[in-house]
Structure formats: structure tokens, C-alpha cells
Amino acid sequence: MAKKLGIGVIGCGNISKAYFSLAPLFRGIEMRACADINMDAAKARAKEFKLRAETVEDLIKADDIDIIVNLTIPAVHYEVSKRVLDAGKHVYSEKPFVLSLEEGKDLKARAEKKGLRIGSAPDTFLGGAHQLVRELIDVGKLGKITSGTCHVMGHGMEHWHPNPDFFFQPGAGPVLDIGPYYITNLIQLIGPVKQVAAFATTPAKERTISSKPRAGEKIPVNTPTTIHGLLEFENGAVVTLNTSWDVWAHGHAPMELYGEAGTVFVPDPNFFGGDVRFTEEGKPVKKLPKWKHPLGVPNEMHGQGMMANYRTAGLADMALAIVEGRPHRCSMELALHAVDVMTGILRSGETGKFVAMQTTCERPAALGVKAAKELLAKK
């Protein structure tokens, strides 16, 4: 039986609950402690999940912690991850991994110097639906992917998030906040990106919060909220990526990929599951039968129905990869290339010029049914 690595979490906000509640689904990891600059938040999460609450400094020093999960706000991801690496611990970060290539390259150098691993969300691409699409591509059902479209559009987080301010500041916005799910999935399906171009606008300079407890409060908007991008992949495929928090409703599918031999309709990369639709050449589009993939099985209520949620799959895969001496799928190289793509899109939106990527990466290994089962704890 694989050794369990001790996990500590820095940042006890909204997203931490998902990590703590879903971690027991997986083998190879054990949640042991949490920390936050707000000790009351750390103590509340610790009590809820029977962990110990620590200061950030004490957690980083703790002898029983092998990997620290960085769930702080994006603006401090780099600083926190740097402290973790310098203390000799592996780090797994929420997305986006960092906010610039310079930050990412520095963390990479620090990790390599000490023989440490860096991993990063999103791990939704490991879900059953997206791995089914990967299987279709890998066995040649679509032929070569030539183009595609992605649409992630809504009207912002001020309508539901209790503290939406950071979503509208540099380091967030729809490309850096939601874009990682789409771009990471595109990379694992098609491969690395060669260059990007984009248009970016900020229609509203401030937003009014309608969620409690701050309903009616106005917050400034200091980053573009509508960005239309174009990605050219190293294999020659060209994909349109439209992101916006200025759209009340639309009729676009989340992701469609067009190949020489067919078309696949990919469910929302923000989630692990969903229906995959496919057509070969001129045949009618059909919904594919559910794949017997364990990370596609609905396991959580969402709205009026059930959804598949296996957040921490990427963390568990990294922990097992450390023990087994193999590459992990939510890798630093994948995360850094996604950051390169996203910051390139934003830079193109500012300058009106094409931006060539400065990084590349290998597609992460597919996570088939057998490999996915091996991630899960035995019942």
C-alpha cells in the first residue's frame, strides 16, 4: 500500500471546503492541518474537518507535512509557494499557478534545486467526460484537430460571491480566473500553443455587489472583463476563446473541437463530468454513452441535480507520483504553459499584437479508467 503524504492547506476560504471534504476519496494523501492569516478562519475549518489549526509560519515548518496546498488569493500565490519551496516542501497551488512567467520560472528553479515537486489546479481535465474526449482523440476518431471554439461567458461573481472584489483586479478577470480550466483542457487534448492574439475591453469601470452581506456596495474594475482570443497550436489547429463577465445570456456551447474526421462537443471544462456529443463526418450528432470512468460518476448535489466533483484528484495524483517516481499530470510545466498562454492573451489585448509563447510542454498522460480507479481509496 502506498505511503500517505501529509497535506497542509494555507488559505481557508470558500474553495478550501471542497479540498477538505473530497480528499478522503483518494489514496496517498491525508489532510492534517490548515492555516490562514485569519486564525479564526483556520480554527473554524480545523474544527469542521477534525484537523489542527496552525499559523502560516508553523504550518510551513511542520514535520508531518509533505505537501502544502496553496489556496490563497492569486496575487500572493507566488510569494506563498516560494516560502513553501524554500522550506523544503512540495507545493500544489490553486489556479492560476502564478501571474507571470518570471514568477513561474523562479519557482521552477527553486523546486529543481531542492528536488521538489510543484503541481497546480485545475484538475477538472482528469474528469470522466474530458478523458473520454481525450480517448476519442488519441484513438483517431476525430482525425487531426484543425480548429475549435470555446465560450465561457456570464455576468461576473458580484451576484453570488460574498467578497467578489479580487475577481475584478489584475491577476483575475475571466481569462485568469476561468480561463485555466479551458486552456488546460485544450492543451491536454490538442497539445501546446504556439502563439495568441486577442481583443480586450472593460465595459463597466465599477460593479455593484448584489450578494450578501455587502449588497449595494460598489467595487472598482481594474482588469478587462471581455476578452476574445485566438490560439494557434503547435500542431496547426486554430481555436477561438471568448471569455466575458459582461454577458447576461448566450447560446454557445462551452467547447467544440473540429477534426478532419469528425466533431466533438465537449462539456464545460470547469466540471469533471457532463455529456459528450460526437459525430463522424456527415453522420448525425449523437450523445455518447456514459464511460465507466470513476471520475465521471455524479457524487454531489448541484442545483436541481447531481454532478461529478473530484477536486483534489490532481493533488492525489501528484502525491502518488512522488512516491512512485513518475511524472504527475497537473504539472508545473503544464501550469506554466497555461500561464504563458493566458498572460499572452492579456498582453495581446493591450498591445494589439500577436504574442508568441515562450514555453511549451508535453501533453499530460491520459487518465484512463484503470489509472483513475488506482487514484481512489479502497472502500
List the helices and strands and how they pair.
Layout: E1 5-10, H1 16-22, E2 29-35, H2 39-49, E3 52-54, H3 56-61, E4 67-70, H4 77-86, E5 90-93, H5 101-114, E6 118-120, H6 128-138, E7 145-153, H7 173-177, H8 179-190, E8 193-201, E9 206-208, E10 218-220, E11 226-233, E12 238-244, E13 255-259, E14 262-266, E15 277-280, E16 286-287, E17 300-302, E18 305-307, H9 313-324, H10 332-351, E19 355-356, H11 369-375
Parallel strand pairs: 1-2, 1-4, 2-3, 4-5, 5-6, 7-12
Antiparallel strand pairs: 7-13, 8-11, 8-19, 9-10, 11-12, 13-14, 14-15, 15-16, 17-18
Helix pairs in contact: 4-5, 5-10, 6-8, 8-10
Please give a structural write-up.
The chain has 11 helices and 19 strands. The chain is an alpha/beta fold and 379 residues long. The strands form 4 sheets. Strands 16-15-14-13-7-12-11-8-19 form a 9-stranded mixed β-sheet. Strands 3-2-1-4-5-6 form a 6-stranded parallel β-sheet, sandwiched between helices. The protein has a two-stranded antiparallel ribbon with strand order 9-10. Helix 6 packs parallel to helix 8 and helix 8 crosses helix 10 (332-351). The longest helix is centred in the last third of the chain and has 20 residues, at 332-351. It is globular and about 60 Å long. Pfam families: GFO_IDH_MocA (PF01408), GFO_IDH_MocA_C3 (PF22725).
